[in-house]
């Protein structure tokens, strides 16, 4: 027996024991999907939020359109548009040598999740930057800081603290949303569970999956709370 | 290129009528879920603020579970779970044939349960914002507890809760796309089928995006109007300070 069969064995669930290893590797895929897309999305979002606030007019309206589009439509629809829709232009992708990317459901899911979460995170960061009092900008200016210096040393550190809680929520939303990757043939935790159910027709396997997701979300929520408490310990908020 | 767009039209071989039907289903399930989810959310919120420890614990566990489990998983569990449960009762009662769960009801229950978990947070926040004096004044006027809630607390609650509930609605509207996996013929279901038949995924999923975007924009506009309406009489828009 390998390690991933033990939880099912201990719980006395045959189906969980039989599919424990598939679900463990599914969980690993879920991790990869979420961590990669949330991190890439964050990097994108910082740029987008700053360009949205201080960029040229055309950039502002483009980013506005982008966030409205991706926040106003279901992630499932976006995923299908990327995986099936962009896959339609196979010859074009082959010409520019990107077919290896759009051929793989895993990359398509990462791509879709990244641009989706970037839109949400950009709005979160924009809100956070906007709620920094004007005096902070004026103070930085009085100290002779230039625009980038102001953003980097004065505004962003404060904005990031404000954004911490909504960003944590976004991470949790992404963990839950990543389950739809199973609908484009990926065997993430949800996909592995669906396979187990389809073969065993034992509904309890869904309940085990629910417990795993729930535990994951709760752990992250609690750790995030602790991190927030630690990062804001200099403030008189609590 | 023009031939392709004819696929979205209402002419011969056009998917227009089917898409409209799908859009209708999407809106129907969202609108059917909304009152159910919001009411259940309010009940859960009252449970969370109850003086009884058991009620509080139950309400908290309920929201923790349904906020933490992926909506897709909740949908599967409710769809197959209720199906199996009902099937067993059906057979236990000695009734002939097979009982099959209507996907619309399963979708409504699953989305409603998730909505109630999220909206209960909004309701709790709003309930907390209403000062104790309001209830005391209502009691002093001789209103019963139920009357005080209906006539005094609730109208004020709506104003505070509206932005949060509007947000819940937008999330719900997008979540309805998941019901396509339990064979409910919504926008995603129709466009997936259209893709299989016509092999034009970009066109059809693009059209689906536009439909959802349209509904989201209308909703945002509607929620904004409702908020402005519920805020009339308040100086939030600077009327009194000018």
Tell me the β content of chain B: under 5%
What separation lies between the terminal Cα atoms of chain B? 56 Å
Mind telling me which CATH architecture of chain B this is?
Answer: Orthogonal Bundle
**Termini of chain A, distance in Å?**
49 Å
CATH superfamily of chain A: MetI-like
Q: How many helices of chain A in DSSP terms?
A: 11
Question: How does the SSE layout of this entry go?
Answer:
The complex is a heterodimer of chains A (238) and B (242).
Chain A: H1 6-11, H2 14-54, H3 57-71, H4 75-85, H5 90-95, H6 99-103, H7 105-130, H8 134-142, H9 147-177, H10 189-200, H11 204-231
Helix pairs in contact in A: 2-3, 2-7, 2-10, 3-7, 4-7, 7-9, 8-9, 9-11
Chain B: H1 2-6, H2 16-48, H3 53-68, H4 71-92, H5 103-129, H6 132-140, H7 145-175, H8 187-198, H9 201-230
Describe the structure.
The complex is a heterodimer of chains A (238) and B (242). In chain A, helix 9 packs antiparallel against helix 11. Chain A has 238 residues and is mainly alpha-helical. The mean pLDDT of chain A is 90. In chain A, 39% of the residues are buried. Chain A is built from 11 helices and no strands. The longest helix of chain A is centred in the N-terminal third of the chain and has 41 residues. Chain B has a single domain, classed as MetI-like (MetI-like fold). Helix content of chain B is 76%, strand content 0%. In chain B, helix 2 packs antiparallel against helix 7. The C terminus of chain B is likely disordered. Chains A and B meet through helix 3, helix 4, helix 9, helix 10 and helix 11 of A and helix 3, helix 4, helix 7, helix 8 and helix 9 of B.
């Amino acid at each position: 027996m390998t390690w991933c069969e033990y939880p099912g064995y201990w719980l006395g669930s045959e189906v969980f024991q039989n599919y424990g290893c598939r679900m463990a590797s599914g969980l690993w895929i879920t991790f990869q999907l979420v961590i990669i897309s949330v991190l890439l999305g964050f990097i994108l979002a910082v740029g987008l939020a700053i360009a949205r606030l201080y960029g040229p007019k055309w950039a502002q309206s483009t980013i506005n359109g982008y966030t409205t589009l991706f926040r106003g439509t279901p992630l499932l629809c976006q995923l299908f548009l990327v995986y099936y829709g962009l896959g339609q232009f196979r010859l074009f992708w082959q010409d520019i040598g990107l077919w290896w990317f759009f051929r793989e459901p895993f990359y398509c899911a990462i791509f879709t999740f990244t641009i989706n979460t970037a839109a949400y995170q950009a709005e979160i960061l924009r809100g956070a930057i906007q709620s920094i009092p004007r005096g902070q900008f004026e103070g930085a200016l009085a100290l002779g800081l230039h625009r980038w210096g102001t953003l980097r040393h004065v505004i962003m550190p404060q904005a990031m603290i404000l954004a911490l809680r909504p960003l944590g929520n976004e991470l949790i939303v992404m963990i839950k949303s990543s389950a739809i990757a199973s609908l484009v043939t990926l065997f993430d935790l949800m996909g592995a569970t669906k396979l187990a159910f389809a073969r065993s027709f034992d509904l309890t396997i869904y309940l085990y999956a629910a417990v795993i997701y729930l535990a994951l979300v709760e752990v992250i929520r609690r750790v995030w709370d602790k991190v927030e408490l630690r990062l804001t310990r200099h403030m008189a908020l609590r | 290129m023009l031939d392709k767009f004819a696929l979205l039209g209402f002419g011969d071989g056009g998917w227009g009528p089917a898409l409209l039907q799908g859009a209708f289903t999407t809106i129907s399930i969202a609108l059917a879920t909304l009152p159910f989810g919001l009411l259940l959310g309010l009940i859960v919120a009252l449970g969370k603020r109850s003086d009884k420890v058991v009620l509080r614990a139950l309400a908290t566990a309920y929201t923790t579970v349904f906020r933490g489990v992926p909506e897709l998983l909740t949908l599967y569990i409710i769809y197959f779970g209720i199906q199996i449960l009902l099937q067993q009762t059906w057979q236990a009662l000695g009734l002939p044939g097979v009982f099959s769960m209507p996907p619309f009801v399963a979708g409504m229950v699953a989305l409603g349960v998730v909505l109630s978990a999220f909206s209960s947070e909004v309701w709790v926040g709003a309930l907390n914002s209403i000062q104790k004096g309001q209830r005391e004044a209502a009691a002093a006027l001789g209103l019963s507890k139920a009357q005080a809630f209906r006539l005094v607390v609730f109208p004020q609650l709506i104003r505070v809760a509206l932005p949060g509930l509007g947000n819940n609605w937008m999330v719900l509207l997008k979540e309805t796309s998941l019901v396509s996996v339990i064979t409910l013929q919504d926008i995603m279901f129709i466009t997936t089928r259209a893709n299989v038949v016509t092999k034009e995924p970009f066109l059809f999923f693009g059209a689906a995006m536009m439909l959802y975007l349209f509904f989201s924009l209308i909703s945002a506009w509607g929620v904004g109007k409702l908020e402005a309406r519920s805020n009339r009489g308040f100086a939030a828009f600077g009327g009194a300070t000018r």
